[in-house]
């Protein structure tokens, strides 16, 4: 007993002394000034042998490093993120350098539409730290903010746009809120709200020699996509990259030249000479317009891959099934799958359990596929999978979108399907217009608009007096009778998983279709044939 007590006392004394030592060590660490921060180094086998560059942070700029639940890392003033970029595959990495990141429009467009875009590590450089929240939801991403890309290391005054207010001026006679800012700004933009884009926020922030950063933080064997949209700062950056041979590290270049910006030391002639020199050296710049949801080779990278044997015509609207040679009516069953997994699972699994083993086409959003890939893979073993948009829009708003937004949404949906090895050919839009048809045609998609659907949007609609005031046992025959009135000659019938009564009537509906309707129950492919 005495030996145990002595040993316990010695253990406590050892823990106390260890705590004193750790406390002293931490107090010494706090004495160090953090005004010098190394540019991040992410690989041990860099192609360059020069030591890491350092960025001197202005004392007024706060430092922050935030890791979100999705795995995004926000870097302020060039903080070292160490191995956060490592793909840990032991091979070449896929990297996107997003320079002039603004409100994450490039990150969104790239992730949604670029082939294998979700596999890329993205570095976003942005000088306006107020825009940092736009990047918080993205994983496999590192934000360098506030940091300006440039042709040299150091500090520089950055001009950022003032906060919006109702009487804010107009830009080029348009009401716009650009966000972000520039390191080159006219006196009018700095001082006058009449210009509309008043750069009323000024900070001294770090600037990074982008040419050196690329050589230090990427390897030649990596696949590097470089996007540059930095309000005139592109000229010294690109000149330095040419001098350093940095385009040897770059596989693809997107960007924009801002000839109208007054860049110190850069005459109109010098700018044009640089552009000619880039072409002479085989540097091909493709356009990228994140604010328009498009880029130059979006269509080339996302060409439709529809089997030639697919029935129907791309962009054509199909609402009925063809008749059999004997003249009997056919019917195809479809399901609009919403984003509520629980409701979708209940309805689809009920249909799967029905003894008729009826062919069904499920129409799903791209985001549903991304969130529940295993479920889609399971369902695809038995059912045809078609697409809806990339994500839901509020009722009536899909058809109001411009063509670029529609294209991005459908490309995104097709890409999410390809990630689970599916190639959709049928599309059920949340509204129909000529623009919707045009965008669907470009994707090679056949448009499905059912003869009728539940809940119905034509004919007898569901209201309190004729439907919702009744019990389940009374609503079921009412729903079936309404559907019967619309499909007496066959066609395409759709159920919507977001309405709970789709689940309630599903087995009774299939009993009728299988036992009493007299329809030939067919797949969507045979319906269109």
Q: Please tally the β strands and state the result.
A: 24
Strand line-up of the largest beta sheet? 3-4-7-6-5-12-13-14-15
Please, what is the average pLDDT? 85
Question: What is the CA-atom radius of gyration, in angstroms?
Answer: 30 Å
Strand % is 15-25%
Q: What class, by secondary structure content?
A: alpha/beta
Q: Distance between termini?
A: 90 Å
Helix percent reads 25-40%
Question: What labels describe this entry?
Answer:
529 residues; alpha/beta; 9-stranded mixed beta sheet; 16 helices; elongated; disordered N terminus
Walk me through the topology.
Elements: H1 2-29, E1 36-38, E2 54-56, E3 65-67, E4 73-75, E5 94-99, H2 105-113, E6 121-125, E7 141-144, E8 148-150, E9 154-160, E10 181-182, H3 187-191, E11 201-209, H4 210-217, E12 223-228, H5 234-244, E13 252-255, H6 268-280, E14 285-289, E15 294-295, H7 298-301, E16 317-318, E17 330-336, H8 341-353, E18 360-364, H9 366-371, H10 373-380, E19 384-387, H11 403-418, E20 426-427, H12 434-442, E21 446-448, E22 452-454, H13 464-468, H14 472-486, E23 491-496, H15 500-515, E24 520-521, H16 524-528
Parallel strand pairs: 4-7, 5-6, 5-12, 6-7, 8-11, 12-13, 13-14, 16-21, 17-18, 17-23, 17-24, 18-19, 20-21, 22-23
Antiparallel strand pairs: 1-2, 3-4, 9-10, 9-11, 14-15
Helix pairs in contact: 2-11, 8-15, 11-12, 14-15
């Amino acid at each position: 007993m005495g030996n145990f007590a002595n040993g316990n006392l010695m253990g406590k004394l050892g823990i106390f002394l260890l705590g004193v030592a750790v406390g002293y060590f931490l107090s010494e660490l706090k004495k160090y000034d953090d005004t010098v921060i190394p540019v991040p180094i992410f690989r041990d086998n860099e192609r360059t042998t020069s030591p890491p560059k350092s960025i001197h942070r202005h004392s007024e700029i706060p430092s922050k490093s935030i890791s979100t639940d999705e795995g995004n890392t926000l870097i302020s003033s060039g903080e070292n993120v160490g191995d956060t970029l490592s793909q840990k595959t032991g091979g070449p990495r896929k990297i996107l350098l997003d320079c002039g990141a603004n409100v994450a429009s490039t990150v969104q467009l790239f992730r949604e539409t670029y082939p294998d875009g979700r596999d890329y590590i993205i570095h976003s450089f942005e000088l306006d730290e107020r825009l940092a929240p736009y990047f918080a939801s993205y994983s496999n991403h590192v934000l360098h903010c506030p940091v300006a890309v440039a042709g040299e290391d150091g500090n520089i005054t950055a001009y950022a746009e003032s906060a919006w207010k109702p009487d804010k001026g107009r830009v080029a006679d348009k009401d716009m809120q650009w966000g972000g800012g520039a390191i080159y700004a006219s006196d009018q933009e700095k001082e006058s709200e009449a210009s509309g884009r008043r750069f009323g926020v000024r900070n001294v922030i770090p600037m990074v020699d982008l040419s050196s950063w690329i050589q230090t933080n990427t390897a030649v064997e990596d696949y590097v996509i470089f996007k540059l949209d930095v309000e005139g700062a592109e000229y010294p950056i690109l000149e330095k990259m040419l001098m350093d041979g940095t385009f040897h590290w770059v596989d693809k270049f997107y960007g924009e030249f801002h000839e109208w910006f007054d860049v110190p030391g850069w005459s109109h002639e010098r700018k044009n000479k640089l552009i000619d020199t880039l072409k002479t050296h085989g540097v091909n710049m493709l356009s990228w317009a994140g604010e328009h949801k498009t880029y130059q080779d979006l269509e080339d990278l996302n060409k439709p891959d529809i089997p030639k044997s697919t029935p129907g015509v791309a962009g054509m609207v199909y609402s009925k099934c063809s008749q059999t040679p004997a003249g009997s009516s056919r019917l195809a069953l479809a399901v609009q799958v919403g984003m509520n997994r629980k409701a979708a699972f209940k309805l689809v699994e009920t249909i799967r359990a029905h003894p008729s083993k009826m062919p069904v086409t499920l129409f799903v959003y791209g985001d549903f596929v991304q969130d529940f890939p295993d479920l889609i893979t399971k369902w695809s073993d038995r059912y045809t999978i078609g697409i809806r948009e990339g994500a839901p829009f509020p009722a009536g708003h899909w058809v109001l979108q411009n063509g670029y937004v529609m294209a991005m949404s459908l490309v995104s949906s097709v890409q999410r399907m390809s990630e689970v090895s599916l190639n959709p050919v049928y599309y059920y839009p949340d509204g129909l217009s000529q623009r919707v048809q045009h965008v669907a045609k470009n994707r090679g998609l056949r448009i499905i608009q059912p003869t009728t659907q539940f809940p119905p949007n034509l004919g007898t609609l569901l209201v309190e007096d004729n439907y919702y005031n009744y019990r389940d046992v009374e609503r079921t025959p009412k729903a079936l009778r309404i559907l019967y009135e619309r499909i007496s000659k066959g066609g395409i019938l759709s159920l919507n998983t977001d309405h709970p009564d789709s689940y309630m009537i599903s087995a009774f509906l299939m009993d009728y279709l299988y036992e009493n309707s007299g329809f030939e129950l067919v797949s969507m492919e045979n319906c269109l044939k």
